[in-house]
Amino acid sequence: METQQQRRHQLRTPMDPLVSLAASFLSAFSPSSREHGTTTSTILLLPLPVAAARALSVLRRLALLATQAFISLFFAFLSALSPPPPPPPPSLAPSLPPPLRGDRAGAGATAAVASTCVERALGHVLWVASRLPVASRKYELVRGLAERLLDENNVGARVAAVTRAALAGAFERTLGQLEASAGGEWGPPGMELAVRAVRSGVRWWRPTVAALEGNDAFGGPAAEKLAAELLWLGQKMAECGAAREAAVQFGAASRLGSRALVAEPTLQVALLRLAVFLLRHANAAEFEQEEGKAAVAEQRMAMLRSWLPLLCRGSNGTDAPVLSGRERAEMVTVLEELIEKLRWEQQEEALALWLHHFAACPDTDWPNLERCYTRWYAESRKLLA
């Protein structure tokens, strides 16, 4: 008898929540076996008040389960709006490119293999130097090694070409890392504002998401170090005659230029110095040697379109002006000459861009292109007459 009762008790015990819920719902309309004995097989309906109370209890459970499921789905949706955690940093030792095929014989094949090895070895040093933090005690060693290898490469045209290729690759890679750290890839400005509003709600509901997401401000020691590396690489490229490649790549980084407007002041200083350095080279005669006039004008316009707003808004720096008075005057002259070398409609676009950003920043009066603007307007009026 005891064994049969234990079996019945095991049969009454739910094996999962669904069975438990079904049993609870059935018990709302039928009495328990304890009240009417274990031998009866007739289902007796409970009085209406008791059945209603049990049904209400079951409905309350259903409502709680539905509420819990809705809340879980809601926070899963909010979590999807937050950015994923940053990927792990790549290894400091990049994989070697595949070796050249041995189908070429003679001195030409040997020279090709040697140039590839030199470029690859120099690329390794530049890559490690860009990845090491400044606080690392090995940073100065690797940076000094890179300086020494670059200085010793001035021994011929072939070696100089290898140096330019390695520096251009390092500049492109470092610029890509800085652009990736900038974020801000949300399409139109309205979409970015909407996403920021939703993220503000997520931070209020889930502080852990806010901790993962971090601040919307663009900056930090890592970004400042990348910007300093870009300036150093640009200077080295200028020394070996490859400043044009650096200016073209930097001008094409339009998203980085827009994010620089909301960057931390110390990062703005580093990017502003880099922009001033490359704008000077974009105005030089060497910039026009390899491309046609239309392509050169478009590349110069890309430089102004991406970085002229930063010159208008970030020229004060943190505690002191970024540029001296003489450097500011020289840069105004460079900008005027650069704009005058553009096509007529490009000049209008550049001057309108300057006017809007210059007027929107009340803290600085530089760069003042009023003279260039009035001169262009007078020439346009003559064409109209």
Question: Can you put this structure into words, describing what you see?
Answer:
The chain crosses the membrane at residues 58-81. Residues 86-105 are annotated as: Disordered. Residues 86-100 have a biased composition (Pro residues). Keywords: Membrane, Transmembrane, Transmembrane helix. With 385 residues, the chain is an all-alpha fold. The protein folds into 2 domains: 2-78, no CATH class; 111-183 and 218-384. The chain is built from 17 helices and no strands. Helix 10 packs parallel to helix 13, helix 12 (254-260) packs parallel to helix 14 and helix 14 runs parallel beside helix 16 (344-360). The longest helix has 34 residues, at 48-81. It is extended.
